[in-house]
Each structure stands twice: as structure tokens, then as C-alpha cells.
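call fold(seq) -> C-alpha cells
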Amino acid sequence: MIYKKASIQGFTAIEYVAIVAAIAIATIAVVSASSGFFSSSKKNSAILEVSKIVNAAKLYRIANNDYSGIAMDEMASNGYDIEPFTDGIAENAYGLNVDVDPTAGNADALMMYDTDGNAACASLKSRYGESADGVASAFCAAANATTGTDASVGPRLLLTIE
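ret:
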């Protein structure tokens, strides 16, 4: 009986390159798809946060007859639903500042919501424009122009809450 040595064949260099290229293309596709997912997640979180703050501010006005003394920590310490800001840290979905102050005469409240870009601010502005219940005005302004903060902070959404 004659035994033949079985030949063991592996992949050629071209086949290895093709496999690595396919894995790289799949990785790029997953990363690019997930980046859109995370930005829309931030946008949805921001919309929810702004809505909660506007509603809490309106309830604050009902309970106190005006907006005197309104602030994020004041609302949080008095049990208003402004989650996730109830721990005293006013860091929004973009990792930036959010604040609420009374306007002159305490008739309205001004919410300042920092965003990370023009598109994010414009999206929130269109969502909470003058047609929104309880919002007298909405516009985007450079955060550093309104408060003297660092120029690296993106535009700030300014909402006047009636």
C-alpha cells in the first residue's frame, strides 16, 4: 500500500488581504452607523430635559405666584421633576451647563441650555419655539457672548418661559 502525503494548503497572501479588508469595511460601517445613533440619543435626551425644566418652571410659578427665587437647585430641592438634575449638578445631555433664572420683575423665567453645536441648538429652538405652550421666545446665542464663558462652549438655547 502506498501512502500519499496529504498536502496542507493555507490561505494565500491575497486571501489574507481580502479578509482583512472585509473586516475593516465592516468595522467602518458599524462605527459610522453608531455615531449617528449616539448623536440622536443626545438630541432625544436634550428634548426630554428641556421639556421637564419648562414644565417644572411652570409648576414653580403656580406654587409661588411668580418666578422669584427660581433656580435649578431650588427646583431640585423642592421636589420638582427635573431628573437628572436632582443631584445638584446641572450638567445636561451634552455634558454642559443648564440654568434657570427669573427675568426682571419675576414675571418670566429664562432658561439657558448650552449645546455642543449649531445643529443641536437649532433643533431644540425649532422644537420649543414660540408656539410651544408656556414659551414666550426661543433663540440661540453664543454662550460666551451671554455669560463670558469659554468660547469652546457651543451655542446656548435661551428660552423665555411665561
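Residues 146-150 have pLDDT under 50 and may be disordered.
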